[in-house]
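Entry type: protein chain
Record version: 2
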Amino acid sequence: MASKTTVLTLPEDELVHPGNRACAGCGLSIAYRIALKALGRDTILVVPPSCLTVLQGLYPIAATQLPCLNVTFASTAAGATGVLGALRALGNTSTTVAAWAGDGGTSDIGIQALSGACERGEDFIFFCYDNEAYMNTGVQRSGTTPQGAITTTTPFSGKRQQKKDVPSIIAAHGIGYVATASASYPLDLFDKIKKAKTMSGPRYFHIHIPCPAGWGFEPRYAVKLGRMAVESGLFDLYEIENGKWRLTGASRKLIGGKRRPVKDYLETQSRFKGLSEKRIDKIQKEIDAKWDGYEQAMGAQKDIAGPDAE
C-alpha cells in the first residue's frame, strides 16, 4: 500500500497564483489548490459557468497556471470528451483531462452529458465541487441541496426534497473509480487523485465544499464546518474502486467510535434555522441507521477476509 501524503510531502509546486476572486473562506479554493498539485502541470481543465470561473478570473486575467476550456453549463463532460478527441488526433495519450463543475452543473444541468460520457467510457476525471446550491448565481436550490436548507428559491421552510446521491448514480454506470472527498480533508483528496491518475476510463470525484456566503457562517469556520459534517457522519468519505466500496480516512475511523451529534453541525449555519427539533432528531436517526448499516457491512467483510483485513 502506498504511503499516505503528509503536509511535508506535498509537492511544493503551486499551480494557482496567490490572490483570486473566490469569497473569503471558500472551501473550493482549498480543494482546487490541492487537487491541481495532484493532477500536475500536464493537465487541461474543462470548466462550465460556476464559482470556479469566478475564482480563476475572466480573460485576460487567470488565477490558474493550467490551460482551461470554458464551456456551456450543460456540456462539461461533452467538452472534456472533445478535448480528449483532439489530444488523440495529435497522438497525445499522456495529458490528463480534468473537468470541474459545481453541483448544479453536475447533478442537474450537466448530468446528461456526464452520464453519456461514463456510458461511453471516456478517459477523463470529473470533479463535482458540491457547495449544495447554485452559489454563483444567488444561492438557488440544486439537486444536492440538503432537505430543510433555506435558499433564495426555498426561502421559508427550506428545500422539501432529499439531497440527490450523485456518487451512487455515477457508480451505477459501472465505472472504475468513484470517490468522495472534503475540502476540510485535503490530504485524503490528494491521495485519491493520485490513485485515480494511475487508472484509465471515467473517474468521478464528489467534493464537499463549505460555502460561508451560501450556508450562513463566518468564513474563518469553513474548515471546521467541513470536518463537523464528516465527524457527524452526515457526509461520508469513501471510494468505490472497481465496484468495491470502502470508507476512507476520517470516516473509516468512526466505525466503532463515537460520532458528533448532527445538531452541532446544523446549528452553525443560518440556512438550517428553519429546522425544528423534531426534524433534527429525524436527521440524526437517519444518520444512525446509515452507520448501523456500514458497521454491519464492514463486520461481515472482516468475517470473510479474516482478522487482519483493513
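Comment: The chain has one domain: 27-303.
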